[in-house]
Amino acid sequence: MSNTSDFLARIPFFYEPEFKAELQEHAKVMSFNKGDVIVRDGQYVKFLPIVIKGAIRVFQQKEDREFLLYYVKAEETCTMSLAAAYFNNKSTSHGVVTEPTEVLIFPAGLIDQWQLKYPSWNRYVMNIFRKRYDELISNFEVTVFEHIDVRVMEYLKSRARNEGSNSVHFSHQQLADELGTTRVVISRILKEFERQQKIKLYRGRIDML
């Protein structure tokens, strides 16, 4: 497992010695397994994570449907948790680990103090918010202007490229959750793609042809 000093030595964006000393004092590195819940909808945020390696899936859930917001990846923190912590509000989203993940954990009560004391923390937070804003606008445009079958195919291609394989591994329900639709819609689209010989369907796996 990494330790706090090892992680701080590798990151260029927190440069004040006093800030690094505070992180060294208050933060700790923790490991999580796939499926572990970092934060739940409706709970107060007591700590914030910065991902060292791995990923956290952040989503909202309404009845039986999930709406993906974003993934928190290496050197990032969770924007929804950050906003909730600033205003002492309850979280409005879930954060679930998607692969073995290490995070730097620190008390949420410190972040407003750091905002005033350390320019590097302020810049880091602003960059994270800007990145999430850009992602939100991009996702909104895709959702509004692209048909769902186009979104499904583009998502499959993107996953295949990222995994370096012609096969992607997830269920119809997982794909529906990623794209904010229903399993019935996804199954119908995938069967049509298979009929067109664009993909081959297996249990828990989709091969790109």
Please render the helix and strand layout as text.
Elements: H1 4-10, H2 17-26, E1 28-32, E2 37-39, E3 47-53, E4 56-62, E5 65-72, H3 79-86, E6 94-97, E7 101-107, H4 111-117, H5 119-145, H6 148-163, E8 167-168, H7 172-179, H8 183-195, E9 199-202, E10 205-208
Antiparallel strand pairs: 1-7, 2-6, 3-7, 4-5, 4-6, 8-10, 9-10
Helix pairs in contact: 7-8
What labels would you give this structure?
209 residues, alpha+beta, Jelly Rolls, Arc Repressor Mutant, subunit A, 2 domains, three-stranded antiparallel beta sheet, 46% helix
Short description:
The protein is α+β, with helices and mostly antiparallel strands and 209 residues long. It has two domains: 4-144, Jelly Rolls (Sandwich), CATH 2.60.120.10; 147-208, Winged helix-like DNA-binding domain superfamily/Winged helix DNA-binding domain (Arc Repressor Mutant, subunit A, Orthogonal Bundle), CATH 1.10.10.10.
Explain what this protein looks like in three dimensions.
This protein is of the alpha+beta class and 209 residues long. The protein folds into 2 domains: 141 residues, Jelly Rolls (Sandwich), CATH 2.60.120.10; 62 residues, Winged helix-like DNA-binding domain superfamily/Winged helix DNA-binding domain (Arc Repressor Mutant, subunit A, Orthogonal Bundle). It has 8 helices and 10 strands. The strands form 3 sheets. The protein has a 4-stranded antiparallel sheet, sandwiched between helices. Strands 1-7-3 form a 3-stranded antiparallel sheet. The mean pLDDT is 87.
Strand-residue fraction? 15-25%
Number of domains: 2
Globally, the shape reads: elongated
What is the count of helical runs? Answer: 8
Indicate the mean pLDDT.
87
Would you list the SSEs in sequence order as H and E? HHEEEEEHEEHHHEHHEE
Low-confidence stretches: none
Q: What does the largest sheet look like? A: 4 strands, antiparallel
CATH topology of the largest domain: Jelly Rolls
User: How would you name the oligomeric state of the polypeptide chains in this document?
Assistant: single chain
Q: What percentage of residues falls in helices of 4 or more residues?
A: 40-55%
How far apart the termini lie comes to: 40 Å
Task: Identify the CATH architecture of the largest domain.
Answer: Sandwich
